[in-house]
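Hi everyone, sorry if this is the wrong subforum. Our group has a chain we'd like a structural model of before ordering constructs, and none of us has done structure prediction before. Sequence below.
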Amino acid sequence: MQKKKSSKLDPEIVQMPSQKMAVVRGKGAPDKVFPDVMPALYGSVYTLKFDLKKQVKPTFKVTGLRARYPDALNTPKDQWTHIIGLPVPDDTVSLPQKVPSVEVKLETWEYGTVAQILHLGPYDQETPTVERLHRFIDENGYRVAGMHEEEYLTRPDAKVQKTIIRYPVRKR
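Answer:
Right subforum, don't worry. Here is the predicted structure as tokens:
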């Protein structure tokens, strides 16, 4: 019997290490929250990066904007809670604050076993992809054990938006 070759668009179960993150929080519709908090988040992370460079210390590439939506499955979109983060080096102990009205905090995001899938296309058309991931989780004997997370691989204005949709999972 030949094993079916998997594609990048197939859901998968993987192990992910914990990750230190620079994090901002917001509440409301994504198109309202993101413009309000992104200058603070990116301002802090890029300032950290350039401060390390000035001190001739190892620097890092700013990548992988991630957002967690703890109430996405049971709350109208205009009332969502947003926990938005960017990975930073594990030895980071403080962050410069660039926008006084938006606090950027350090957190460690725990992962472990996760189920994830790549979604291609607009954010507002993710529902079938999310449903496919939930079916995959169930069919493979797992249950969702944490909040909905998205990792944005492209900018919102990209010709084709690429988003990893992810959930921590546990065996049933």
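For your construct planning: Residues 12-171 form a domain with the Multidrug-efflux Transporter 1 Regulator Bmrr; Chain A fold (CATH 3.20.80.10). The first helix runs from residue 30 to 54.
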